[in-house]
Amino acid sequence: MSLFGQQIMLAEPGNLIGAGPSTGICSLLARHVVACEQAGKTEAFRLSGRDNTRDFLDVRDAVRAYATLLVHGSSGTVYPVVSGVERSLGEIADLLLSMTEAEVPVRWDGASSGPDGSGKQEELSLLRKLGWQPMIPFATSLQDILSDVRVQQGRTTS
Predict the structure, then answer these.
(1) What DSSP string describes 28-86?
(2) Suppose 107 and one of 6, 44, 67, 83 were both cysteines; which one would form an S-S bond, judging by CB atoms 3.0 to 4.6 Å apart?
(3) Which residues pair with 126 in a beta bridge?
(4) Whole-angstrom distance, CA of residue 92 vs CA of residue 86
(5) Local confidence band at 121 (pLDDT 50, 70, 90 cut-offs)
(6) How far is CA 72 from CA 14, 67, 68, 125, 130, in A?
(7) pLDDT band at 158 (very low <50, low <70, confident <90, very high)
(8) Beta bridge partners of 120
């Protein structure tokens, strides 16, 4: 692949998640959980269909993937930077809600459309052939996001 006469490779990240500022669904729902923990918030968090899926990858794994590509990648190649695992919105909500004892209302607005992820499993093997694989479990990523939000909200409310 050539762009402006330069040989390039592309890293094509999926949905990256992790602690820190984000407007992604995992962070938004974690902020809702913490608001319910702190103030007993009763307004429901609105989500589309429970079965809608996406591929989520911890940003720390993505950084390791980029480092692998810089050392071992080939120009002219597009590398999907994804976990290879589709997660449903229902799974995300259930996992985050299992990490709190607070009452956290969630409202499902849309009809589930079933799996709608990127189907990048075959292309993921490009990165795996270079020796990379995701290392951080999804539940750990969610716990880290929730812990970070708790710390940040604690600072703003103290």
Answers:
(1) HHHHHHHHHHHH---SPEEES-TT-EEEEEEHHHHHHHHHHHHHH--TT-EEEE--S-E
(2) 44
(3) none
(4) 11
(5) low
(6) 20, 9, 6, 14, 6
(7) very low
(8) none
What is the structure's pLDDT at 43?
A: 87
129 phi and psi, to 5 degrees? -65, -20
CA distance 139 to 158: 28
CA angle 122, 123, 127 (to 5 degrees): 120
Strands 86-88 and 53-58: antiparallel
Burial class (CB in 10 A: 0-12, 13-18, 19+), 48: middle
Terminal-residue alpha carbon distance, the chain: 53
- Token pair for 67: 């480092």
Question: What is the rounded CA–CA span in Å between residue 91 and residue 112?
Answer: 13
Q: Please state the pTM of the whole predicted model.
A: 0.86
Count, residues in the chain? 158
**CA 8 – CA 1 distance, rounded (Å):** 6
In the block, which residue shows the tokens 């990523």?
Answer: 141
